Amino acid sequence: MRAVIACIADKGLDRTSVADIRRTAGVSTGTLYVHFKNKGDLIAAALRYASLREETVPQTWHEMLELLTSPNGQLGFDLKTVARTRLHLHAECALPGDLHDAYRPILQSVLSTMAVQLQLFEKRGEVRLAMSPERTARAIGALIDGLMMIALETDRPLEDLQPDLISAISCLVEERA
Questions:
Q1: What is the 3-state secondary structure (H, E, C) of 72-126?
Q2: What does the DSSP 8-state code read for residue 3?
Q3: What are phi and psi of 156, to 5 degrees?
Q4: What integer pLDDT is reported at residue 98 of this predicted model?
Q5: For the residues 119-131, what does the mean pLDDT come to?
Q6: Which residues make beta-bridge pairs with 173?
Q7: For 84-111, how does the pLDDT look when each residue is reduced to its tens digit (9 = 90+)?
Q8: 132: helix, coil or strand?
Q9: Domain count for the chain
Q10: What is the CATH number of the domain that holds 142?
């Protein structure tokens, strides 16, 4: 899964081949095809691997904010790999087709998981939300993707985004002491 993510970050979805993934992963073609029937299956599995899931969701707002704004990236990837992969996937998944159909439930699950956790943080008094948990989850995702895209397009160091992300998210989620 890490090889799929690295290849997408480097080449985009269209230009990434199963051979690229195989070489990056250091496995044989046969090994890949034992587990995945095609490139689409590989990408869908990588999307599931890299997505926020109930079992990996941070348990406090402070931990969630750190995950969302970390200058160190996620899952051990550098921030540039995370940003480029997210943007490539969002662009391709917006088009009708198999990838869109595979990504839609994954994205809906991520947003739902985040909304449930935001609601829990609010119920525990950790935060006050400016909107419903569902809208807040969507807005946070859009803020992160938008700021990453602008940084990449303007050659701004991604590591400099953390203060902007924290400030933008704080407009949506007020942290309580």
A1: CCCCCCCHHHHHHHHHHHHHHHCCCCHHHHHHHHHHHHHHHHHHHHHHHHHHCCC
A2: H
A3: -80, 135
A4: 86
A5: 97
A6: 129
A7: 988 888 888 888 988 889 889 989 999 9
A8: coil
A9: 2
A10: 1.10.357.10
